[in-house]
Prior knowledge:
By secondary structure, the protein is mainly beta. The chain has one helix at 8-23, and strands at 30-31, 35-39, 43-49, 58-63, 66-73, 91-98, 109-113, 116-122.
Amino acid sequence: MVRFDPFREIEELQEQLFRSLQASRNDNRTFAPLVDVLEDAQGLHFAVYLPGVDPQKVDVQAENNTLTIKAERPFEKPENANQYRLEGTYGTFIRSFTIPNTYDLSKVTANFKHGVLYLDVPKAEAAQPRKIEVHVNA
């Protein structure tokens, strides 16, 4: 007697789909990484999630009013190894943001820690609040 497993057929279909996707896999895929963007009195703060990416393969560009983040995580298959499952994200990551003129793209700072790229875009000097002295005419 064979024990009935209601999930076996679903698992077999998933495996077939996975194998067909891997067979047609294009290693030049491009992904948009997940990003958190916060704003406070100092400026904009980005957290760009790039798990498994080598910090040397991260490129940040600021041009005109656009902030662009590019990164790469290539798949390096060991020689004579069989791949049964690849659920990691491999390829190129790219994300661009239009930044208003009230922020200074020439003063962006970037830090990479534990697979997360942190970018800080300060407010422009002209956008900072300042006190205006009121003169009294006698």
